[in-house]
Predict the 3D structure of the following.
Amino acid sequence: MGVKAAAPALLVLVAGLTAACSPIKTLNALSPKGGISVIHDIAYGEGASRVLDVYAPADRKPGRPVVVFFYGGNWDSGKRADYAFVGAALARRGYVTAIPDYRLYPEVRYPAFLEDSAAAVRWARDHAAQYGGDPNRIVLMGHSAGAYNAAMLAVDRRWLATVDMDPRQDVKAVVGLAGPYDFLPLKAQRFKDIFGPEDQRPITQPINHVDGQAPPMWLATDLGDKAVDPGNTSRLAARIRKAGGTVEEHYYARLSHALMVGVIGSPLHFLSSVFRDATAFIDARAARP
């Protein structure tokens, strides 16, 4: 599809994402498919929700970084198929990319989605070479609730420990897009149900696990985000920096909560430098030893 032919669809797409309408089908349809291979419906554990898709460069050249991407959806919605545009863009950039589903509320509550996320990362490490990836170049990435999942695996070592991994040794970098990392007190009843009794909620917050030992983090948000307070990004970055850890924080304008992940898709790269900035960080932090 040429630029002129695609323009009307892009205008509709941008308008929809800016309004948080998420016209995912259009974005996925417009995303280039050439140069990558996609393997669907791979089980990483038991149950219908513990399934992932792998997007890989078609040439299967060995030793590539491996990105595990966690989607958002308030821990109660979302599906991996909706984020094919993310997998395609990252694979075309040269990364082996796994996008897992994970159990959601009301089927489960905290910390089940973190346990599933850890299991997916372990699967990615164990099977990386099969798709051209390097098991020693693992990167965690997520948007919104998925950024929370990625950050928690990095700062709270309990979760990767359940699959015999340690983020300090086994994860090269973390990329968080518009993530909630410090969001107490809870107001919505749904979130109160998800995160349990009030006296136990502090341990559910990534900011309360920062010790300066986590892998380097790249945290980004839109300054006008109406869904997740941009202060989540600034507060977590400040805490990491104070503890002596490595973090980059980036603030973008004129996007939206949805567009922070939408611009990862190839058709929307022109809107922002988010993709270019994030992948530059991945390349630097997940470089060959």
